[in-house]
Automatic annotation (TrEMBL):
It is found in: Cell membrane; Membrane. It is a multi-pass membrane protein. This is Transport permease protein. The chain crosses the membrane at residues 21-41, 53-77, 98-126, 132-154, 166-184, 222-240. The keyword Transmembrane applies. Pfam families: ABC2_membrane. PROSITE patterns: ABC_TM2 (PS51012).
Length: 249
């Protein structure tokens, strides 16, 4: 990370720290979903897991990240519309530093949200046999997932004409875990829904995290999850970079 990126990252993080309710707001919906499913629906849902919060947590973490990256679009949209982005471009700094500052801010703020959700899950009975290596692998997968969605968020942040447009893309991402193995095993779903659920990125990511936290080993799911994350990141990065150059010259 070069000095320019560090300075811009510090600016964005100071804004977040002055208004920590942003992180709390992002965490509220996933936490409420976790409380609802564990204490209201959990007794009726059969997953084979002894503790439903253990089964549920990986999907809730992905929901929290999907909610959090929406703020990347908002912050970038505000910088563009206020003219601040254009001012940055005229300064003697690397242009890439402007976008990378937003990306790194997303990684840091979403990491704080993930920690907050995990702390609540611990209070609800979440337990794991994972050791430090497995936890590092989980952190790596969540980091890649955040990176992929953040670069995806950059695109509407640059192209949207309204605040609503900048955040609308995140709604399908937040609810994508519902059609996956995040809440129930895909085997219980109708055939057509099951085909979609088993071949979308959330299922492989959730399965990988779940295996690392409770089984200590993963199969092909982790490679599929990594392929999804890396593929989305590369494609979104290319389109975001082109849009950045087109919009600001």
């Amino acid at each position: 990370m070069n000095r320019n990126t560090g300075v811009l990252l510090g600016r964005l993080m100071r804004n977040i720290m002055r208004s920590p309710d942003t992180i709390i707001t992002v965490a509220i919906t996933p936490i409420m979903m976790m409380l609802l499913f564990v204490y209201v629906f959990g007794g009726a849902i059969k997953t084979g897991a002894e503790n439903y919060v253990n089964y549920l947590l990986p999907g809730i973490l992905l929901m929290a990240i999907a909610s959090g990256v929406a703020y990347t679009s908002v912050r970038l949209f505000n910088d563009v519309k206020s003219g601040l982005m254009a001012r940055f471009i005229t300064m003697p700094i690397k242009r890439s530093a402007v976008l990378w500052a937003h990306v790194l801010t997303s990684l840091v703020s979403n990491a704080l949200t993930v920690v907050l959700v995990i702390l609540v899950a611990l209070l609800m009975g979440f337990r794991t046999s994972a050791h430090i290596v497995e936890w590092l692998a989980v952190a790596g997968i969540l980091g890649l997932f955040t990176l992929a969605l953040t670069w995806l968020a950059i695109i509407p942040g640059l192209t949207a004409v309204s605040m609503e447009g900048a955040t609308a893309y995140s709604y399908p991402l937040v609810f994508l875990p519902f059609i996956s193995s995040a809440f129930v095993p895909t085997e219980t779903m109708p055939a057509i829904v099951r085909v979609f659920a088993e071949n979308q990125p959330v299922t492989s990511i959730v399965n990988s995290i779940r295996a690392l936290l409770y089984e200590g080993s993963v199969g092909n799911d982790i490679w599929i999850a990594l392929a999804w994350c890396v593929g989305i990141t590369i494609i979104a990065y290319v389109f975001a970079s082109k849009e950045f150059k087109r919009k600001l010259g």
